[in-house]
Design a protein that fits this description.
TIM Barrel, binds flavin mononucleotide, globular, alpha/beta
Length: 377
Amino acid sequence: MTANAMLRQDRRNTNPVFNDRKLKLGTFGTNLDRGCAISTIDGVLEINWPNTLELARCSEEMEFEALVPIGRWHGFGSHTNFNGPGFECFSWASAIGASTKYSGIFATSHVPTIHPVMAAKQAATIDHVTNGRFALNIVTGWNRPEIEMFGSPLMEHDDRYNCAIEWLHILKQLWTRDEPFDFEGKFYNIKKGYLQPKPIQRPFPAVMNAGGSERGQHFAAKHCDMVYVVFGSHDFADCKAKVDAYRELARKEYGREIQIWSYAYVVQGETEKEARAYYDEYVNQKGDWDAAENLVNTMIANAKTLPKEVLAEMKKHFIAGWGGYPIIGTPEQVVDGLITMSKMGLDGTLLNWPRYVSDQRWFQKHVYPLVQQSGLR
Ligand SMILES: Cc1cc2nc3c(=O)[nH]c(=O)nc-3n(C[C@H](O)[C@H](O)[C@H](O)COP(=O)(O)O)c2cc1C
């Protein structure tokens, strides 16, 4: 066996996303300007290397399992151009990976913006840089202007997933097969596919997807190791039913066990009143409602036909934290929110904060010890 072959390890031994903590934690969108808050409040994340590194280090100190960047090529206009400036995910993951030792480091990759041979090679490279902590979040793309920026049209919804099936199949072949292989599909044609060195992780790095549509859920349940769910309603029974249904889909239709994650925004304060005033300020008073409108209109084809109140509520959640699950209140209430998410049956959740850098440090000091005491971690 070569020295490189001996480096390879079962991914459960190298990547903390496979650990057995009751509720795994991560961050979302620390590679993009303003993070997840569509707000003009002072102190939202200004994207630069020291800030994104500071967030990774803070997460690492709490042994967060997942640092998940957002794949974004275009902002949402208005005066903030929300999420316009930002770091490309694979190069971000490589550099963050080289600067950390514990957390699982994700790259979020669009399917149509990168050839699968390149994606497989970059992923394998980062897996070596991180000694087996890399994971891949696959997105098929929905944001028309950013896909068109690459000179190709946005494919019809289900075809995006047909393309993703071929794309991911090629990655897995490259990551696992020693002999060169040919592949001829509808979207890709590979001649003598070859990749060395293989990733550190056996059989290959964890693959994640956030398919929300029926087609997307089947793709994720059949082909991915981890999925995200987005909660339309925040009623406990509805959320739990959604998690249960996803798990059942993977088990019954595909005989697979998958991890199910979601994401939440955390608005914290010494008192509940303080936390709610903070929410009111950065969302109601200083939210960039025009950028939120642009986002909703791009993402949801029939947005203009939705009832006004539904649309306003949706925009509020996007402004507050990219549409995540809301956790608002004192340190004890934040812990209760995380316990509730765990009771929904989630394996993990990504978190984000409006003033990302200072709020995450506050969480580390005032909330995280209580999270540990609660037995969640
Ligand atoms: C936690 C989470 C992260 C996501 N990250 C991205 C991203 O970085 N880039 C992107 O274009 N879409 C992203 N998406 C969108 C999803 O990939 C997906 O397109 C969306 O959930 C709609 O599902 P569908 O594709 O099945 O219709 C994300 C969704 C969620 C819930």
